[in-house]
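A favour, since you know our structure tokens better than I do. Would you make up a two-line entry for one protein for me to read? Write everything out right here, beneath this request.
=====
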Amino acid sequence: MISHHNAPSFSYRGWVYLPEVEHEDDDGIRKATHRFVNRADPSDIMICAEHLPYDWMTFQEVVEFINKMERVRS
């Protein structure tokens, strides 16, 4: 089960993956918010709504997501 203690920390191309456990519902299920923060500007946060809220992204998923979002932004 996801928790604050097993959350990964990946960085790629100036972005840091900072998942957060939102809350635990009545059934004991925890959900995560998948955030990316630009190290150059901590106020620049990108939310990843494409990943399931019940597990963490792998480093490869982080790389693919950031590459895709940078193509969209440019």
